[in-house]
Specification:
Elements: H1 2-14, H2 18-31, E1 36-41, E2 51-54, H3 58-66, H4 74-81, E3 86-88, H5 99-109, E4 115-122, E5 128-135, H6 140-168, E6 172-174, E7 177-179, H7 181-191, H8 196-203, H9 207-221, H10 226-241
Length: about 240
């Protein structure tokens, strides 16, 4: 565990964008036999969208953000009420949840998110974020890791939060989805009608590299085309102005 934690810290120190943070946590989760993770933080500005960095299915994350599920998510609700880590999923009973919350968990289960372990993060700024590790069924490796390393996982969550606040508060977010500076640059030039070749000439990178960044942006935003991604960017910019 010491080696896993040290590598996690080293990678955090080197991370300077959302993708690097996602990879750092994903690699660590895999090393600990934790299937998937999701970090959710409240918006950094009034009226903004929450920040999600996760290895959950992209279509679920997009659906979650589009429907503003952070407002009904019972895991987030419990994270606001306690600073102690907690297990969830099969232990929830119908009497503990509203009908809307039950329906939410039902939807999440369709994407393989049925039970998990969540670490609430209450920091000195008054921010309440949450780091969750989830799985689709009871797994011996998952249960063993949580049982043995719960305190270390809690420490990892605090480190993760601190480094994200330091590095990502000024990065671009579209509906709470973080884009790297290059992804945003390419998308902004595309919104001006520039082709991949033209964007490459402007930024001093190859056409294929531009296509790579645009594809990343499309995948993160859960859309199929650059035009759809540009529309999401335009809508986000309009919201910021209001």
């Amino acid at each position: 565990m010491h080696r896993v934690f040290q590598k996690f810290v080293d990678n955090l120190l080197a991370a300077d964008n959302a993708d690097a943070f996602a990879k750092t946590m994903a690699v660590t989760a895999t090393a600990l036999d934790l299937p998937c993770f999701a970090y959710l933080a409240p918006p950094y500005r009034l009226g903004g969208k929450p920040l999600i960095i996760s290895s959950y299915p992209t279509n679920w994350v997009t659906h979650y953000m589009r429907n503003r599920y952070e407002r009904v998510d019972p895991i987030i609700a419990q994270s606001r009420e306690t600073a102690e880590p907690f297990r969830w999923g099969l232990d929830f009973t119908s009497t503990q949840l509203s009908r809307t919350q039950q329906e939410f968990l039902g939807e999440a289960s369709e994407f393989g998110i049925r039970l998990g372990f969540t670490v609430p993060i209450h920091d000195e700024h008054g921010t309440v974020a949450a780091l969750t590790f989830a799985t689709d069924q009871r797994r011996a490796a998952f249960e063993k890791c949580i049982g043995v390393h719960a305190h270390v996982i809690q420490l990892m969550a605090v480190y993760f939060q601190a480094h994200i606040r330091r590095r990502l508060t000024h990065e671009a977010a579209i509906d709470g989805i973080i884009l790297s500076p290059r992804e945003l640059q390419c998308l902004e030039w595309a919104s001006q009608g520039k082709s991949a070749w033209e964007i490459g000439q402007i930024l001093g990178i190859s056409r294929n590299t531009v296509a790579f960044y645009l594809n990343n942006a499309k995948e993160k935003l859960g859309v199929r085309t650059v035009v759809q991604a540009v529309r999401r960017l335009a809508a986000a910019n309009k919201e910021k102005q209001n």
